[in-house]
Write a structure and sequence with these properties.
Chain lengths: ~675, ~550
């Protein structure tokens, strides 16, 4: 019986392959064998009676049609999904993309390169809109070895995608797959997708923050990490706090307050821990905050309610001299209160004649110094207080009267309008001013970070540690410490007085493109080309949050001044607002059509400004958009889009940098490009 | 399979000296090459993003190669976009056009202008959320005036990145000398032989172009100052003519400067202050000059002729203008061709004659000078009208050659004319001013002997409504007879020769118009006009 079957397979296989002679030979031999068999006993049969072997042969005979089966299976699943009820359709659609990707990779692994190509191209368009960047990456995969080599693909193959789906949809899907016997599809789904089946109604379509984004790291890990508690409260004993507490008596406030502070501190601590643990308890605080913000406009002393929890610094923070402190306090007292009805004034610095060489720009906290990093390795600093005396006149004077005495324009004041800093040996990718404007850091493609003194106009230190271009560098909000982000997939924490990094944050799966300090200096956030944003504890060097949701490389980050929210902008022009404590996306902000180069929160955190390559500065209402999810957190929010307040177009100048001064004047910098 | 064909791999292998690359290897390499290339391009995009750009440059690719520790490809970072050329004979093979650069040229070339240094400008993008309407901001719907002077300054030194430096006009020493010499001759010794040679030089020499603006300025200046100096004006006009004749000079851009002075010499009230000055001659000369300018540049500046005729017509129709001015205007119009005369002068002829008549008569106008002028004007008018009527009649060939006539019409060309008619016209031309004769050229185109703009001829068949109006009103009882006569004869002739040509009606109409015209002219000018009419036609009409 079984032998007959086996013989049939063999004959069929030979026929298929066109081995005619072999077929003949085989049949001849068979006949001989049979005749022999008749004579002798049936000994030979028992040798090949393994049913598994027959199955193996069966699958072997079908080898040729693997591509067709994949293609057929996927297209069946696809057409079924598209024709399903609207209620469940969008949930099912989420399943399609991972299935598509894995079908393609399976085909590549099995060696059907040509088939994989045609499969990829025939269904590519479905996913083009959402996942074009992934597709571009995967398109180049042409051999199994590439899959192993490419980290993105590699990690995709070795991790499961988590998809939230409702009970009924899940059953529908499984039923269909079983009924139609699409075993390949079923296999892929089993192997690579991890369904989180939730009872009840399917999730509404508008809730597209939950959309499937394939990143390399396993999402279980991410959720596990996001369980960790963080203390996002403001630093205790910050100047703002002191201003609120002491009002006018500043000079000797420290001593006088010595004891009262102790008591309050404990309370703060408690609250902050609470705030870190669960988002719910902070809601109340948040409400308080809003209330206090209302009251604060009139009186700085109306601070019986402490707005945000206070935390202790984990780092030894630099001491601020009293004069500087005074000037900062002066600024804080003169701060303009911004809200959706009182928008800021924006001062725009336009770079001209840069000949396409400007890579980055940075503005000091008081707006008086503007630095530009160029692709010819040079760093140029303009002192706008001197340069634009008549142009910006009174405002700038007011802004920098405290510090202008410290600045010396340097020997070349006559001819050049700027101070030239030379020292790097590769394009300068980022620059940052210390909070007081007396130091400047720059990072470059030569994998170094350099510290410059703007008072002496000299290079002080060269920090070597990264192995690849350093994309970004940022001073901590209080100075002294700084963080750098590099192509070597690490972010590093440094202090100005050491040439070795203090911490190395490793974990991103691709370049770390941007870095930003949390206001309390205990955390840094990093944005990466792996489309995630991570939050790291500076003290321990651990990753404490992973924010997943961007669909392309993250280019800019900003932290709100109350330490609760973070905004991140990506290559496609999307801005996402994150709640640090929950690790969730509060609101996606759509509006920009091109790369978001820069983000900045206003000082009291009510507005977010974004600067983009599409030559606009946009102002977003933060208070309105963050309050909404608080009241209706359980996702019925079509309204939870961040409200765009104003779009300010520039004259063909992509916006490279944004900075709110301490008095809430917004400075923006961009380069005039001829054809945009 | 991959977008890199295996042939490419083979070619590259050969280019680095591997001649015996097996096809299997090439086939295996091709997908890998594509994968690597994609990788590098993705890295390059990263570099581009960090340079805050949205266009990929060769520098970015070099940066990406650096990241992979690969030697960058040198020679492509020259800024400008690469120009690919298609290889001849291949549909999709491109190469970069690499020009040979002579090292000597590079070394000897003057240093290029240093690029402008980077700078920062500062402006308010928004004040309390509202964008001020200043030039630095993107234009809002309403463009208001810049708010203050400071904005102007900034705009001036900021936004236009490439600044135009004032152009220095360098004139060689020789040209300066030449210019001085010519102007001196024109000013003082315009009757010398040397001046005539200078005119020839002006008309023929190449390389005078740099001087043209100076000459036009000189002419305009001198004409406005020297209206009383007849010889100077004449000399200047001669210079103008020579400049116009010079084939190496591109004079069009300066015409607008030149025309006013020329027209001034045509219709000025007084030209020259001595009695002996024959300003009539100057006017005639200038009239021809104007006509030739119109002829040459009329197609470039469409409104040139209309503007000119408007000016002239104003001078002609304004009774307050002096007779000299009117003479100039008539001559100018006449020089523009019989068509212009017929459209612009003939309709106004009758009222004008009524005004002119008293001036001509001894008893009415005592001033000898004025009377003389009036007769001059009369002569000019007569000449213009006569030429016009001649031109009209000339189109009717003798009855015997009707078929030829038809051919000529249908072709609408002036080339075929009947020789015997031309001969007669030559006889009549005896009365014309001498310069007209000089303009007579070859016998092939008789049109040129009479009027300058030959291209007008083709459309002269169009009947002029003004004429038909005047005809009936002015003609007395005897005219209808004549017309009927003429028509009758022509009718018969036409019917005999041609059967039912579509052109017939038009010809009849034309005849009718000419008949009317001739009659009215006869009334106005008396027998004087008859000398302009060729004999065959004359016999026809009278």
């Amino acid at each position: 019986m079984e032998e007959d079957q086996l013989e049939k397979f063999v004959v069929a296989y030979l026929k298929k392959k066109g081995f005619k002679q072999a077929e003949h030979a085989f049949q001849e031999e068979l006949q001989q064998h049979q005749s022999k068999n008749n004579s002798s006993s049936s000994i030979s049969t028992n040798s090949i009676t393994d049913p598994d072997f027959a199955k193996h042969l069966l699958s072997f005979s079908e080898f040729e049609s693997v591509v067709a089966r994949y293609q057929d299976g996927y297209s069946k699943l696809r057409s079924w999904t598209y024709s399903s009820l609207d209620l469940y359709k969008h949930e099912l659609l989420r399943v399609l993309y991972p299935v598509f990707i894995h079908c393609f990779m399976d085909l590549v692994v099995k060696g059907h390169i040509q088939g994989a190509r045609t499969f990829f191209n025939s269904f590519r368009e479905d996913h083009e809109m959402m996942h074009s960047r992934d597709l571009q990456k995967l398109e180049g995969v042409l051999s199994p070895s590439h899959l192993e080599e490419m980290e993105f693909a590699h990690s995709l193959r070795h991790s499961k995608v988590k998809i939230k789906i409702c009970q009924y949809t899940y059953e529908l899907l499984l039923q269909y797959l079983h009924k139609t016997q699409l075993t390949i599809m079923l296999g892929i789904i089993n192997e690579h997708i991890n369904f989180q089946v939730s009872p009840g109604q399917p999730i509404s379509i508008s809730d597209d923050t939950e959309v499937v984004t394939l990143i390399g790291s396993s999402q279980d890990e991410a959720t596990q990490i996001n369980q960790k508690e963080i203390q996002w409260g403001l630093l205790e004993d910050s100047l703002e706090e002191r201003l609120e507490k002491s009002g006018v008596l500043l000079s000797d406030s420290e001593k006088a307050e010595g004891e009262t502070k102790e008591g309050e501190l404990d309370e703060n601590k408690k609250r902050s821990v609470e705030g870190g643990k669960q988002g719910t308890s902070t809601k109340k605080l948040k409400k308080d905050k809003a209330a206090s913000a209302m009251g604060k406009t009139g009186r700085p002393e109306a601070n019986a309610v402490i707005t945000a929890p206070r935390v202790k610094p984990e780092l030894a923070l630099p001491v601020i001299s009293t004069e500087v402190e005074k000037s900062i306090l002066e600024d804080l007292r003169n701060r303009v209160q911004l809200s959706s009805v009182s928008l800021p004034s924006v001062n725009f610095y336009t770079f001209i004649n840069t000949h396409n060489g400007l890579n980055c720009s940075s503005i000091s906290h008081d707006g008086s110094l503007v630095a530009g990093g160029f692709s010819d390795s040079s760093l140029k600093v303009w002192d706008m207080a001197k340069l634009g005396q008549e142009a910006v006149g009174s405002v700038l004077q007011g802004e920098n009267d405290t510090t202008s005495s410290e600045y010396v324009l340097g020997s070349n004041g006559g001819k050049r309008s700027y101070t030239l800093f030379q020292g790097h040996s590769g394009p300068v990718y980022s620059a940052t001013f210390s909070p007081l404007g007396d130091f400047l850091l720059s990072s470059s493609a030569d994998s170094t970070v350099r510290l410059w003194s703007t008072t002496m106009n000299a290079n002080l230190v060269c920090y070597k540690g990264h192995n690849y271009p350093v994309w970004d560098v940022q001073f901590s909000p209080l100075g002294h410490y700084f963080a750098s982000a590099s192509h070597d997939r690490t972010a590093r924490i440094w202090s100005m007085d050491r040439i070795q990094p203090l911490r190395i944050m490793a974990g991103h799966l691709s370049d770390v493109d941007c870095v930003q300090w949390h206001v309390n200096c205990n955390y840094i956030a990093t944005g990466s080309s792996d489309k995630t944003v991570r939050l790291w504890d500076v003290q321990s060097g651990e990753c404490v949050r992973i924010f997943i949701g961007h669909r392309s490389m993250v280019l800019s980050l900003a932290m709100s001044s109350d330490g609760r929210y973070m905004a991140s902008g990506d290559e496609d022009g999307a801005i996402m607002m994150w709640d640090l404590s929950s690790g969730r996306c509060v609101t996606p902000l759509m509006g920009h059509t091109s790369c978001v180069w820069s983000l900045a929160f206003s000082c009291e955190g009510s507005l977010l400004a974004s600067g983009s390559a599409d030559c606009t500065v946009k102002l977003w209402d933060v208070t309105a958009s963050t309050k909404v999810p608080k009241t209706e957190e359980n996702k019925s929010g079509n309204t939870n889009r961040l409200r765009s307040l104003r779009t300010l177009p520039t004259k063909s100048s992509p916006v490279y940098a944004l900075r709110f001064s301490r008095r809430n004047l917004l400075f923006a910098a961009g380069v005039l490009s001829k054809s945009v | 399979m991959s977008i890199v064909p295996k042939e490419t791999i083979e070619v590259i292998a050969q280019s680095i000296g591997i001649n015996n690359l097996s096809p299997d290897v090439a086939l295996a390499l091709a997908p890998d090459v594509e994968y690597r290339m994609r990788e590098i391009m993705q890295e390059a995009v990263k570099c581009m993003r960090h340079s805050k750009r949205t266009t990929l440059t060769a520098e970015d690719v070099d940066g990406a190669l650096n990241l992979r520790n690969v030697e960058p490809i040198y020679g492509f970072a020259s800024g400008g976009p690469l120009r690919f050329k298609r290889a001849i004979g291949h549909r999709d093979l491109f190469y970069i056009d690499d020009k040979d650069v002579d090292l000597k040229d590079v070394i000897e070339a003057p240093l290029p202008k240093a690029p402008l240094d980077a700078a920062i400008l500062c402006h308010w993008l928004a004040i309390e959320g509202v964008q001020p309407a200043i030039p630095e901001n993107a234009s809002v719907e309403v463009i208001t005036a810049p708010s203050n002077v400071k904005d102007h300054e900034q705009k001036d030194d900021g936004l236009p990145v490439d600044i135009k430096l004032p152009v220095k006009h360098i004139l060689s020493r020789e040209l300066q000398l030449y210019f001085d010499k010519i102007t001196e001759l024109t000013m003082s010794r315009s009757d010398s032989v040397l001046f005539k040679q200078a005119l020839v030089s002006l008309a023929t020499d190449s390389g005078l172009h740099p001087l043209v603006p100076y000459f036009t300025y000189f002419i305009a200046d001198e004409v406005s100052h020297g209206l009383s100096d007849y010889s100077l004006l004449f000399a200047l006009m001669r210079v103008v003519r020579s400049l116009l004749q010079n084939p190496h000079i591109h004079i069009e851009p300066y015409l607008h400067q030149l025309m006013p002075s020329v027209v001034t010499c045509l219709v000025a009230k007084r030209l020259g202050n001595r009695f002996a000055d024959d300003h009539w001659e100057l006017r005639d000369f200038t009239a021809n000059l104007v006509a030739s300018i119109c002829k040459r540049f009329g197609h470039v500046y469409n409104n040139l002729q209309t503007r000119l005729t408007k000016t002239l017509l104003n001078a002609f129709l304004d009774p307050k203008r002096s007779l000299t001015q009117q003479y100039g205007a008539i001559q100018g119009l006449a020089a523009l061709g019989p068509n212009v005369v017929r459209i612009l002068i003939l309709p106004n002829l009758e009222p004008y004659m009524r005004l002119l008549e008293p001036e001509m008569l001894l008893e009415k106008q005592k001033n000898e000078m004025k009377r003389n002028e009036a007769w001059r004007v009369y002569g000019a008018l007569l000449h213009a009208a006569g030429q016009c009527i001649y031109d009209l009649l000339k189109m009717f060939p003798p009855l015997t050659s009707l078929p030829a006539h038809a051919v000529w019409r249908s072709n609408a060309r002036v080339t075929t004319t009947v020789p015997n008619k031309r001969k007669e016209s030559m006889e009549h031309l005896g009365e014309q001013p001498p310069h007209k004769k000089t303009a007579t050229d070859g016998p092939i185109l008789p049109v040129f002997t009479n009027s300058s703009p030959s291209h007008m001829e083709g459309i002269s068949v169009v009947p002029v409504p003004g004429d038909s109006n005047i005809g009936p009103s002015s003609s007395s009882g005897q005219t209808p007879n004549e017309i009927v006569d003429g028509r009758g004869k022509r009718d018969k002739g036409d019917k005999q020769a041609l059967k039912k040509s579509a052109l017939l009606n038009q010809i009849w109409k034309n005849d009718l118009d000419s008949g009317h015209l001739l009659v009215s002219l006869l009334e106005l000018f008396g027998e004087g006009i008859l000398s302009f009419i060729p004999a065959p036609e004359m016999s026809l009409f009278l």
